[in-house]
């Protein structure tokens, strides 16, 4: 998550509110614009007990559908609560897509600009990107097959543009005498291409650890460190203030979330099974993303005498 706000996120273990809901671990944004509409915090990312994840990211130029009227045949969802709605109610990407197509409409506030798009992934390997363009909901499947999708989402322009940009990039690579650039900035299109190139060169993982480490290596390539870093996004709260506040790796099949923050680059692991997320109406527990957990492993104790 790249923003200019440093200490405004916390992890919340959110048990199901009814027997028909699912529990989830959410990364909540605290007080970033939301107070204007009477909302103190809202989840920007997270994963539920069924292995469905939701991520909200900036997409400048977003234009939401109108808020449904009381007599409309669709139910309205304020954009700030899309991840809460999805993670609480659905087990997989197909269910989210069906709801956004047939029964629910996402709408945005008018008191401030809050341009967002969403990525949903599940334990089956399915993925969609949901965007709101020209007041319409646009759902694009991301099969992560290297042809119609690449398992990557950054920011503007809209997702289909990035897919076509990668296809054009691959076309140039396959010419008889290719000359192609290696994008090294932190603009959304550079990050998208860079991740695509690196993903294509990774060795196939032989273990769960290999899988997670592959994801971490990719995350390293697009992490914006603190400081005056050139070549970042442009927009309110970005530019000089655009840095990576935290990074997340989801293990959708094992229901494990790994995360790290700008303040602590050591991976912190949260197994959803350890959070009592099956207790209907249970208490919510939280942990600030920037916390006092160990930021290093003391390796001295692991030394052994040479025989």
Automatic annotation (TrEMBL):
Database matches in InterPro entries: CBAH/NAAA_C, Ntn_hydrolases_N, Peptidase_C59
Pfam families for this protein: CBAH (PF02275)
Keyword terms of this UniProt record: Hydrolase
Signal peptide: none
Source domain of life: Eukaryota
Limits of the Choloylglycine hydrolase/NAAA C-terminal domain: 43-279
Calcium in keyword set: no
UniProt keyword Hydrolase, yes or no: yes
Molecular function per GO: hydrolase activity
Family stated for the protein in its record: Belongs to the peptidase C59 family.
Protein name per the record: Choloylglycine hydrolase/NAAA C-terminal domain-containing protein
Organism: Triparma laevis f. longispina
Lineage per the UniProt record: Eukaryota, Sar, Stramenopiles, Ochrophyta, Bolidophyceae
